[in-house]
Amino acid sequence: MPKGQIVKALSGFYYIESEGIVYQTRGRGVFRKKKITPLVGDYVEFDTTSLTDGTVTKILPRKNDLVRPPVANVDCAVIVMSAIEPDFSTYLVDRFLIYLELKDIRPIIYISKMDLVDEQQMADIKACATAYEALGYRVYLSHEFEQEAFLADLSDELVVFMGQSGVGKSTLINHFIPELSLETAEISSHLGRGRHTTRHVALHKVKDVLIADTPGFSTLDLIDIDKENLPYLFPEFANRAHLCKFRECSHQHEPKCAVKDALENGEIAQFRYDHYTSFLEEIEQTKPKYNKK
């Protein structure tokens, strides 16, 4: 039975690329009964009698999946943030980072509109970029952007773009896939954010990179993250956790905490620790409460 990857989903049809040929298929009826939805990016088995008449028969195991955009087996996500309008926010960057760490997706940070900032803003953003790079995250600044180097960094990966509304996700996707002509989102001065611009998702090959043509999350909640797992989504915390006195250290009030020691020694950025405590509080406050019978 042939195997391939779904590269587009549209109006109930799934377009599967297999050995350089794209087949139009539909999902098995049993998928709907079992509430199974094939996703763009899925590796599948399928039956086919022609290029336009096939059936997805089996979805192979996924390494991850996203809700927005609805894509599976994502290797890398580019977090698009703007330098201004809306202002650059490490708090939002960190929300995206912990989500991607949870999903085992490699993050890249791209900061747009760098040509619009003053010298002080430039210095502040570059300092943040240096802090993220020290943690192993790749950061690209728009005024220094080189497409060839960027694509080389993404070689052989399936890539999605996500970030706040109005930061230029669609513009950046258009840069790589000009034939799309995605409507770009302008900033609403009243709301301070961009209008959502979405379309059906498909994968486009740019050199040896598969790029999803639909922008992803603009905001994220932390519903999928529990407080015990949160510290391990911060690499600089995870790398020191074994040095803490207590195995399940929350890195807050416990004695002999390696993370707190590193924070005091300047080895962990204060803004990262502050965001960690903020996320922890949010998770604790939103944890379901069950009534006792």
UniProtKB/TrEMBL annotation:
Coiled coil: none annotated. Binds 1 zinc ion per subunit. Zn(2+) binds at C244, C249, H251, C257. This is Small ribosomal subunit biogenesis GTPase RsgA. InterPro entries: G_CP_dom (IPR030378), NA-bd_OB-fold (IPR012340), P-loop_NTPase (IPR027417), Ribosome_biogen_GTPase_RsgA (IPR004881), RsgA_GTPase_dom (IPR010914), RsgA_N (IPR031944). Its cofactor is Zn(2+). It is found in: Cytoplasm. Its EC number is 3.6.1.-. It comes from Granulicatella balaenopterae. Residues 72-218 form the EngC GTPase domain. It holds the Pfam family RsgA_N. Monomer. Associates with 30S ribosomal subunit, binds 16S rRNA. Keywords: Cytoplasm, GTP-binding, Hydrolase, Metal-binding, Nucleotide-binding, Ribosome biogenesis, RNA-binding, rRNA-binding, Zinc. PANTHER family: SMALL RIBOSOMAL SUBUNIT BIOGENESIS GTPASE RSGA, SMALL RIBOSOMAL SUBUNIT BIOGENESIS GTPASE RSGA 1, MITOCHONDRIAL-RELATED.
